[in-house]
Each structure stands twice: as structure tokens, then as C-alpha cells.
Specification:
Elements (H helix, E strand, L loop, with lengths): L3 E9 L3 H13 L5 E4 L19 H10 L13 H8 L21 H4 L34 H15 L1 E2 L7 H14 L10 E2 L2 E4 L6 E2 L2 H5 L10 E4 L2 E9 L2 E9 L5 E11 L5 H8 L15 E9 L10 E3 L8 E6 L14 E9 L8 E9 L5 E6 L4 H21 L1 E2 L6 E2 L36 E3 L14 H21 L1
Parallel strand pairs: 1-2, 1-10, 2-7, 10-19
Antiparallel strand pairs: 3-5, 4-12, 5-6, 8-9, 9-10, 11-14, 11-17, 11-18, 12-13, 13-14, 15-16
Helix pairs in contact: 1-10, 5-10
Length: 496
């Protein structure tokens, strides 16, 4: 290492939670110098903008390849044979077409397959996410964070992401469908958990929605001079440098280069993702017992329903929230089926459905790191060791029945399309690998403010800090948790 630089806060990762740390620290600590490190490139003129706002589909597809960072393998189209297999409820190999997926194949590959993928570009998964920002149910929340504090954090997170609770309030077909669903699923629910429009981080317009990326989260930060805030793109963090329970900075390198330099920092935030944050801590010699363990993700049960035709057709997304008694989060959205053959007997409007089904949180499900084999970051390669529990299998069957029940309320299951269980990991909502805990008892990596146990200035962020079983899309949840750590950093460092 030759070059030495310094900053007040360095944030590794430019996705939604890393960006939330930057924005809240700036709000509460105006004079802070903040450096954000991103392994991937800047792919759009507007920092962190969402790719779905690009209407040219060929241009968008090319940019999605760039958004994979070191993985430059284009996506291949789905074959007719694969599509027919999926329609019949079989395995869909198209879900595994990108290289760079992390796959476990212990014992029975069909049962234990866990797929993983991570974005690497300025904005991280914030350039590619679905923008769904539903609130977690009471059962999904961190039990040792008081409800009023967590509710306040969720409100802050909604503001950071730009949540819109009802992007298409005039969609009469969606309203009618929600009324039918509400008659079945609303009884006994609290007002905040009724069937409703899916909250989205998006701005409504006369035509299509404008989807929010981390451009919205970062806001005016990107206009600041580089000495106050800057993003180092195509820059890899090789390790967090630390001594006696204190992070002193990070060792950085340009992608594809061996020469490294040291960035001294008073506070370090690692916000890569649920796979790469534990990877970086492991590579840095920070290896608490729970690191990389408890990995879990929602199962996704896919179903296509057929709703009656309407004029105009339904365009809005809808949501059946999870509750303590109803463990599934159900997302409903118009599906065109234009890319493949549409059965002649399907005469109504096809409605796509994803029933998010929670999986058990088990310390035996974990990441493994191979220091003898380095990935494109120059860090130990990752593999995932996972298998479903018997309770998981039973829950999946219940979720399948729920999908069919919802389809019958909407209209009917679409003819020619079976209920389909996607490979675990398909939601890209991996959690638990850097989980927070109430005490440093070996079962967690960080405290309720996401500060790593045994350190006074090292924080982690992302879906991986969530310690509970969940079915609800986790981005709002993880951004809310990030605000606790960001506020603590600002309060402590301003007092120094």
C-alpha cells in the first residue's frame, strides 16, 4: 500500500442501506466527510437511477449486464421447453442462467438448491429492485426494538425511499379485485393489514410510473463537492483494517488491479449485501461465530390467475399482507404473457401472483468461504449450504393452497399454468447472515444498532441484519434498521 487518504465515514456498498447511512449521517452530522466505495461501475448518467425507467428494452438489457459488476455474462432468453416445464410446475432452468450464481448441491440437488445473485454497480440493487416497500407484520419485526421506535424508523425509511402508498388510485379493476379479496381475507385483521395497493417507491405520472433507485435515497448528496461526499466506483474493498476492537480504515484497490491503498476512517460501515458483507468481514479476520449463519429467504410460490376482462385493464399492483395468523405476503400484478404462447382458453386478464412464504431460521444453513479460490473482488469465494426443514415443506404446501384460494377469489387459476415453487433464493431477499441480537451470546453479529459486537466503530447494513422469519419484502425493513446505526454514528462522532 502506497497511498494513504482519510475520511470521517467510509461506507462499503452503494445500495439502499448504504445510501441511507450516508443520507442520515449527513442530516444529523452536516460537517461529516463521507466516502462511499462501490465495486461496480457507474452505469447511468444519474447516480443510482432505476434501470426500469429506461424504455428501450435492448438498452436496458445491456445495462443490466453491466450492473452485474465483474460478471459480464448476458442473460439468455427462456427456451420454449423451459417455459413449458415451468407451466407444468417443473423446474425452470432459466432462473439459473446468469453466471456468478452461488449454488449449493448437498445431497439432493433438487431439494437443496439455493440460488444467489448480487448486483455490483453504483446504486447496487437499488437500480434493479422491484420497489415494493410493504411494512413487516408484528411477527416479523425485531422483538427487542420497541414498537414506537421501529414505527418511527419505518416512517423515516419511507421518506428516504419515496414510498407511494397507492400509485394508481383510479384503477377501478384493481379496486374491484381488492374488494373481492378483502371480503375473504380482511375479517379479523387490523386496519393496517387489510388487502390494499402494494406500496411502491415510485412516482405516479400520466403514463408509466417513475421508479426510485438510490438516486432518491442519496438526494442532494450527489451534488456536494468531492471533499464532502464522493463515490469511488469500480473500487474493491479488500479488507477492513482493525486493531483492538476498533476499525482504523479500509484497504482498497481498483477492480482488476493488485496495487492497494489505505483509506483511514473514524467509522466503517459495511453495506455490501447479505452475501458479500460477511465475505468481507471474513476476509478481514472478523469472524464472530454467527457470521454467515442463519441464511434464509422466502420461498416464492408462483401462480397465474385469470381475472375478468375490464376496460381499461388492470395496471396496479396489489398486496395481501402477512399477519400473525396469516404467514404469507401475497403480491399480485398484471401479467402480459406476451413472450410465450398464450393458451386459447385463457380469455380474461392474466394476473401474476407471488406468495412469499417464510423459511425457518437455522444456524446450520450458512455461507462457506474458500480462501484458496478468489472471486473477481479478490476475496474468498462463496458457497451456500442450505436445506429445508420439515416445517418449511409443510408451509410450502399451505402456501400452494393459499395461491389457489387467492386465484379462485380473483376469478380462477389460469388454464394451462400450474402452481410453481421457485428455487430458494430467487427473491434475492437473503437474510440472517449478519443478524442483530439483543446480547453478544454468539448467535448474532451485531447489536440492535447494527454495530458489530466487540467494535465501537464498525457497523453492518442490509437485509442480512434481519434476525427474524419474514415473508414481506425486506427493503423498507432493512433501511429502517439502517437509520438506527446512522443516527448513533452521527450522535457519537459529533460529540467527539
Amino acid at each position: 500500500m502506497k497511498r494513504v487518504e482519510s475520511t470521517d465515514v467510509v461506507i462499503i456498498g452503494s445500495g439502499p442501506t448504504g445510501s441511507a447511512y450516508a443520507r442520515i449521517i449527513r442530516r444529523d452530522w452536516p460537517e461529516a466527510r463521507i466516502v462511499m466505495v462501490e465495486a461496480g461501475p457507474q452505469i447511468l448518467p444519474k447516480t443510482g437511477a432505476h434501470l426500469d425507467n429506461i424504455t428501450d428494452l435492448s438498452e436496458r438489457a445491456a445495462l443490466e449486464v453491466l450492473a452485474q459488476g465483474g460478471d459480464r455474462t448476458p442473460r439468455l432468453s427462456v427456451s420454449k421447453e423451459e417455459w413449458e416445464a415451468r407451466r407444468a410446475g417443473g423446474f425452470d432452468a432459466s432462473l439459473l442462467r446468469r453466471s456468478g450464481l452461488f449454488i449449493t448441491n448437498e445431497s439432493d440437488p433438487a431439494e437443496n438448491l439455493f440460488t444467489g445473485f448480487a448486483a455490483a454497480n453504483v446504486g447496487g440493487m437499488g437500480t434493479k429492485w422491484s420497489t415494493g416497500t410493504p411494512t413487516p407484520s408484528e411477527a416479523e419485526r425485531v422483538p427487542f426494538i420497541p414498537a414506537d421506535e421501529f414505527d418511527a424508523a419505518l416512517t423515516i425509511a419511507e421518506g428516504l425511499l419515496g414510498t407511494n402508498k397507492n400509485t394508481r388510485p383510479d384503477d377501478t379493476a384493481a379496486i374491484a379485485m381488492r374488494d373481492r379479496l378483502g371480503a375473504v381475507f380482511n375479517p379479523g385483521r387490523s386496519p393496517d393489514r387489510l388487502v390494499k395497493a402494494m406500496p411502491l417507491a415510485a412516482t405516479s405520472g400520466p403514463g408509466n410510473l417513475t421508479y426510485h433507485g438510490t438516486d432518491v435515497v442519496l438526494g442532494p448528496l450527489v451534488e456536494e463537492p468531492a471533499e464532502r461526499f464522493k463515490i469511488l466506483s469500480e473500487t474493491v474493498c479488500r479488507r477492513v483494517v482493525h486493531e483492538d476492537g476498533r476499525a482504523t480504515g479500509v484497504e482498497l484497490a481498483r477492480v482488476g488491479e493488485d496495487e492497494t491503498w489505505f483509506l483511514s476512517a473514524a467509522t466503517v460501515v459495511v453495506a455490501c449485501d447479505s452475501l458479500h458483507t460477511p465475505q468481507l468481514l471474513f476476509a478481514s479476520g472478523i469472524r464472530p461465530a454467527a457470521l454467515g449463519r442463519h441464511i434464509n429467504d422466502h420461498f416464492i410460490i408462483s401462480q397465474i390467475a385469470e381475472a375478468p376482462l375490464s376496460n381499461p385493464p388492470m395496471r396496479a399492483m396489489s398486496w395481501i399482507p402477512a399477519t400473525n395468523e396469516f404467514p404469507f405476503s401475497v403480491t399480485l400484478y398484471p401479467s402480459s404473457l406476451d413472450s410465450m404462447e398464450r393458451p386459447a382458453e385463457l380469455t380474461g386478464q392474466p394476473i401474476g401472483m407471488g406468495v412469499f412464504c417464510p423459511s425457518d431460521v437455522d444456524a446450520e444453513n450458512h455461507l462457506e468461504f474458500d480462501e484458496s479460490k478468489l472471486d473477481w473482488h479478490g476475496l474468498p469465494s462463496i458457497s451456500i449450504k442450505w436445506k429445508p426443514s420439515e416445517a418449511d415443506k409443510a408451509r410450502i404446501e399451505e402456501a400452494k393452497a393459499t395461491a389457489l384460494r387467492v386465484a379462485e377469489v380473483i376469478g380462477r387459476p389460469a388454464p394451462g399454468f400450474a402452481t410453481f415453487v421457485q428455487p430458494v433464493g430467487s427473491s434475492l431477499h437473503y437474510q440472517g447472515t449478519i443478524r442483530m441480537g439483543e446480547s453478544d451470546d454468539g448467535t448474532s453479529v451485531c447489536d440492535r444498532n447494527s454495530r458489530v459486537w466487540g467494535f465501537d466503530n464498525l457497523y453492518v447494513a442490509g437485509n442480512g441484519v434481519i434476525p427474524t422469519m419474514t415473508a414481506t419484502n425486506p427493503t423498507l425493513y432493512s433501511v429502517a434498521l439502517a437509520t438506527f446505526g446512522a443516527r448513533q454514528i452521527a450522535a457519537q462522532r459529533r460529540a467527539v
